[in-house]
Design goal:
It is built from eleven helices and 17 strands. Helix 1 (11-22) crosses helix 8, helix 4 (88-109) packs parallel to helix 6 (178-197) and helix 9 (285-296) packs across helix 11 (334-341). The longest helix is centred in the first third of the chain and has 22 residues, at 88-109. The chain is globular. Strands 3-2-1-4-5-9-14 form a seven-stranded parallel β-sheet, with helices on both faces. 34% of the residues lie in helices and 20% in strands.
Length: 354
């Protein structure tokens, strides 16, 4: 298959392109090489594939690239928590306008198969159960509670403590950041396109991805990269809240496998079918910091309290649907992945890039 991989020079996209080529497919990489992720030039692994430097919002460029393509793997996006609301136009432009232009040009070129890089951020908080009221959806945490160190959300009906559980793909969506809102909008745009055209979409809702080629030293980097940068400076990784917030950390090589499975699987059962791409092995953010500090021989993590606006307390995933529909299961265990991450090559952006 000839597969257009948007964002194919980036952290996840480059691993997808590598695996596609290794399995006999022909990836065509399109990447805008944004300085916030790539620094001043293309990464060395770009040379391994047919690569076009360009923007997914460029309809004329897409019109030249899409004929002869069998499927599109759409990884291009602005990612991360961001800095402040001034980021919103860039997030919407790259993530949502970019997706809309891509879908329009796919229709023009009669390409009807899309694998979308979705995200667990569309859920907001994960699943919670109350002893008295069953499964409930807590609202956003309030600043006065966070300032007082009360991080756990209570039952919205009785205020009792809640038990976090595994969130499945049928959970209500509740995006709580600009990035999250744009990722959910991507799914809505793709679903509308699929219904209008008869196309098909797998939305792979990535959980906390880590591994080689992560961007570093940027406000858009993931928490694993932020912790490692601190340790390389000889500083303790600073862990917000009390470090007990639960996440599912999944290795980038497993995420690449999930993408290739989706690109080569039969059409999904609905116009857009979302699946969690996760390890199925929940861990706390504090555990990540502790394991990485030990692997790097650095200082123990420092618990600093506080929380960023829009942060959620717990979100961990149910892996059952990805296993059932795609035959996907994560192969890299948390401890092994973190030890390797201590020395994995990362991408350093240009100083002062935005």
């Amino acid at each position: 298959m000839r597969i257009l991989v948007t964002g194919g020079s980036g952290f996840i996209g480059s691993h997808v392109a590598d695996l596609l080529a290794a399995r006999g497919h022909r990836p065509l990489v399109l990447d805008a090489l944004l300085r916030a992720a790539h620094g001043d030039g293309p990464p060395p692994w770009t040379a391994d594939h047919e690569t076009v430097h360009g923007d997914v919002r460029d309809a004329d460029l897409l019109a030249r690239l899409l004929p002869g393509v069998d499927a599109v793997c759409h990884q291009a996006a602005m990612v991360g928590h961001g800095v402040d609301p001034f980021d919103a136009p860039d997030y919407a432009a790259h993530n949502d306008l970019g997706t809309a232009v891509l879908l329009a040009e796919m229709h023009r070129a009669r390409v009807d198969r899309l694998v979308l890089a979705g995200s667990m951020v569309v859920y907001g908080e994960g699943r919670y159960d109350c002893d008295r009221h069953g499964t409930v959806r807590p609202g956003p945490r309030v600043l006065v509670d966070l300032a007082a160190g009360r991080y756990e959300p209570g039952c919205p009906r009785c205020g009792d403590p809640l038990r976090p559980g595994l969130v499945d793909e049928d959970a209500p969506t509740d995006p709580r950041s600009t990035y999250a809102a744009t990722k959910l909008a991507q799914e809505h745009l793709a679903a509308a396109w699929a219904r209008q055209t008869g196309g098909s979409v797998w939305s792979l809702r990535y959980h906390n991805v880590f591994g080689p080629r992560m961007p570093r030293d940027t406000p858009y980097a993931g928490v694993a990269s932020i912790f490692r940068s601190a340790l390389e400076r000889g500083e303790a990784p600073r862990v917000m809240e009390d470090g007990a917030q639960l996440r599912d950390f999944v290795h980038v090589t497993d995420v690449a496998v999930a993408n290739v499975l989706a690109l080569t699987a039969p059409a999904p059962p609905a116009a857009l079918t979302a699946v969690n791409v996760c390890s199925g092995e929940p861990h706390t953010v504090g555990e990540l910091a502790t394991e990485l500090a030990a692997a790097m021989g650095g200082p123990a993590p420092e618990i600093v309290g506080g929380a960023r606006p829009g942060d959620v307390r717990h979100v961990v995933a149910d892996p059952a649907r990805a296993r059932e529909l795609l035959g996907f299961h994560a192969a890299v265990r948390f401890a092994d992945g973190v030890r390797a991450f201590a020395t994995d090559p990362l991408r350093a952006p240009a100083a002062g890039s935005a």
